[in-house]
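Notes from the 1:1 (GR / supervisor)

We went over the backlog. Supervisor wanted to see one worked example end to end before approving the batch request, so GR pasted a single chain during the call. The sequence is below; no edits were made to it. Supervisor asked that the structure be written out right there so they could see what the output format looks like.
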Amino acid sequence: MHIKLDDENYIAESLWLTNGEYPEGFFEAGELPEPIEEYKYIDGVFIHAPRDLDPPTQEETNGLNREYLADTDWYLLRKFETGVAVPQDVLIKRQEAREAIVEG
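Structure output shown during the call:
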């Protein structure tokens, strides 16, 4: 199987050729997983990464970020009660979550 990738590394086209020659931009990828539109080709490996055709609404984004904040609140309680530090990556992600929440 020969494939051509789009700008996001998703399979844009696929070809079965038996003569060993294929058009410019195509390369041999072996067997393709199904459904092919849900896979990206990265460093020679197919990664399951369905495209999100409908971007989330701000309400959905707010909900996901509030959920993350609620799920990680325990780190702050632990810090307050025991003095154990909150991991830096959690602090960064919490800040990003707060910034992504937009009140209507």
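Supervisor's comment: The radius of gyration is 22 Å.
Batch request approved.
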